[in-house]
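Dear colleague,

Following up on Tuesday's group meeting, I ran the structure prediction for the two-component complex that the binding team flagged. I've pasted the input sequences exactly as they went in, so you can double-check that nothing got truncated or mislabelled along the way. The structure tokens for the whole assembly follow below. Feel free to forward this to whoever is handling the docking comparison.

Inputs:
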Amino acid sequence: MKIATWNINSVRLRLDLVLRLLSEEKPDILCLQETKTPDEFFPTEAFAKAGYKHQHICGMKGYNGVAILSRKPITLPQVRHWCEKQDCRHIHARLEDGTELHCVYVPAGGDIPDPKANVKFAHKLQFLDELAGWWKMHPHAKRRILVGDLNVAPLEHDVWSHKQMLGVVSHTPVEVEKLAALQKAFAGVDAPRHFVPAGQKLYSWWSYRAADWRASDRGRRLDHIWVSKNLAGDLKKTRILKEARGWTPKPSDHVPVIAEFG
DNA sequence: ATGGTTGTTTAACAA
């Protein structure tokens, strides 16, 4: 089984890129974030034609939006709401083998890393808290996978400069701590780091603002795949498709993250 | 220290 996740930053604008990923990588499942479209405009037909007939989507006008595309049937599609908003950031479904798959888009959190001065940062922290609380309170499936743009780069080498990023939203200690609490509540293994040592740089996102993203290489690992411990032994490999950042002059600022199970 | 880009609801936002 092969599963991919990608923050696509407008699925309609980059439909060709998604189709390219599906045709080149042929994942069994693709999870998308930042689809940025209401469901009536989601390119359902194009993905069905590409072999992904089974879809669970949750979109809205302009912002956010998540989707699960699958070659095989999925059941129990659910939408979760957090922080008393209905902003299309979390969906989940069951795969045929009973695995519960979550597709999550954590709020970015704005620029100022202070919840009192910045309501967007407060929202991000509360979102992480509520999600962690949910996994603590509710019984959950034995086999679990959580993927998505979690908008936090947790490890020192998940950013280009730990020292220079400590005060930058996505790598502040309070976010890293809350993401760790969420990961603990979910009881998940960080799949890419299962293979890549913590001392090695690993990024899934490069800013649009760099004059030359490849040359400056100031990346962050914001996109994640977590798997329950009973699935970690089945992990065969993971990949972060850096090349997708260069597939087109107008790419997403995020690249796909892929996990393969044996 | 600052500013740099992109997408959508083409005017501000959000990222």
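Helices of chain A lie at 15-25, 44-49, 119-137, 162-165, 173-186, 191-195, 213-216, 229-232.

Cheers,
M.
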